[in-house]
Amino acid sequence: ELGYDVEGYPDYRGVKVLGFWHWIPEYNLGLMSEIDVDEVYKDLYELNKTLKAVAFAFILVTVVVAVFLGRRLTAPILHLTEVSKRMSSGDLHQRAGISSRDEIGLLAESFDTMAETIENNIKEMQQLHSQRMSTIGHLANGIAHHLNNPLTGMRICTDILLSELEKAKECTHSGEFKGQLSRLKATSQQLESVMKGLFSISRISNPEKSPNVLNKLMELILNIKVAEQLEASGVQLVKELSPTAPKILGNPAQLEMAFMNLISNALDALPKGGILTVKTEHLANENKVGVTITDTGRGINEKDLPHLFDPYFILKIRPATRCTGLELALAQLTIQSHGGTIEVDSEEGKGTTFRVKLPIYKETSPVEVSTKM
Predict the structure, then answer these.
(1) CA distances from 57 to 54, 65, 68, 229 (A)
(2) Which H helix or E strand runs over 214?
(3) Which of 276, 260, 261, 248 is nearest to 353 (CA)?
């Protein structure tokens, strides 16, 4: 009879062994053989360790190769994404610069072609805008020159006549004449203010630019230029000027006038007092500096907002205002001539907010300081 036990059992030593036995009836005895389990499976254990080591090494190599290939594939895509973000923030000189011959290289080449096309189109648009502004400036300057001198003469003559009427008090109709002449003088002064606005348009077309700290400009306007107007109107001023706001490239006189016009417009909307908030901030994601001017005044009807920057439109919705009507249009032209944007939000009864964004001055481009648009 043959028998065996491959599951193992402890022998007299307490060591697990495998057993095999055979009964020999002729001799009335049995033959039994035992071998330690560790000795039997020694090679299998070694093989198992070897297989595990090989498997681990294979997995490690696979992971390393996958990471390498993944980075090689994703790095250009991430680079393209970063370049796209920089372009969207206004830096149109960005290029992918990937020269591989695979699909990523073809994508990068197409991207660079598109970026160059966009940059050229923007340059053409800027040139057209500059030419248009120059044309408008020349036209405004010519009109202003032709009308300003006669208006000045009219005002001087009016002053002389008023002075003579003061001397001729015995004249029966002196009071009526004085009233008519005073209205004529007021009209001529108003027209002279309009002429000044037209002169301002002619200067906007070719502004001399230099690096400016926007916060200093706003402090000058709020603490000196409009301080008397603020005090007289009883408006509470809230200043939120960011200390991290970087420099901008611009003409300080023109920017000062533009922001003064926006602030004066806000004060005109607060005849009975209220709150005026002026805020500056660094818009890092857009590579720009932001200026927000908010008033708690009467607000503007939604249907009127698209026309707010049209010359003289403000006089239609605020006939009692102290402005000439050109102020907001001049502010918009000035901001645009500096490569910026201006937007307005308003709700009747809740106030108005002007949002200005201007490009950050780049220290690496000093040539731009003397460039004319």
Answers:
(1) 5, 12, 16, 79
(2) helix 214-220
(3) 276
- Burial class from Cβ neighbours inside 10 Å (0-12, 13-18, 19+) for residue 311 reads middle
Question: From CA 80, how far away is CA 76, in angstroms rounded?
Answer: 6
* Cβ 226 vs Cβ 288: under 8 Å: no
Taking Cα atoms as reference points, which of 162, 198, 201 lies closest to residue 178?
162
Match 């602030």 to its residue by tokens. 263
- Residue 189 CA to residue 212 CA, distance in Å, equals 33
Instruction: Round to whole Å and give the CA distance between 260 and 217.
Output: 10
pLDDT, tens digit, for every residue of 318-353?
877 767 777 898 899 889 888 899 999 999 889 999
* Per-residue pLDDT, 89: 62
3-state secondary structure of 358: strand
Q: Which token pair is 298?
A: 């009467």
Neighbours of 240 (CB within 10 A): 11
Which helix (H) or strand (E) covers residue 72, if one does?
helix 42-88
> What's the chain's Rg over C-alpha atoms?
42
> What is the residue-averaged pLDDT of the chain?
79
Tokens of 116: 């160059």
Q: How far is CA 162 from CA 157, 182, 191, 341, in A?
A: 9, 8, 19, 47
How crowded is residue 112: how many other Cβ atoms within 10 Å of its Cβ? 17
- Estimate to the nearest angstrom the gap between the alpha carbon of 367 and the chain centroid: 23
Q: Are strands 16-24 and 29-36 parallel, antiparallel or unpaired?
A: antiparallel
Separation CA 229–CA 237 (nearest Å): 12
Question: In angstroms, rounded to a whole number, what is the distance separating the alpha carbons of residues 138 and 40?
Answer: 105
- Work out the burial of residue 239: count CB atoms within 10 Å of its CB; fewer than 13 is exposed, 13-18 middle, 19 or more buried: middle
- CA neighbours within 13 Å on the CB side: how many for 322? 12
Cα separation, 241 vs 223, whole angstroms:
13
Number of H helices, E strands in the chain: 9, 10
In order of 130, 207, 332, the CA distances from 337 in angstroms are: 8, 8, 8
Instruction: Please name the helix (run of DSSP H) or strand (run of DSSP E) that holds residue 288, with its range, or none.
Output: strand 288-295
| Closest-CA residue to 348 (of 303, 300, 282) | 300
> What spatial distance separates the first Cα and last Cα of the chain, rounded to whole Å?
111
pLDDT at 281 over 90: yes
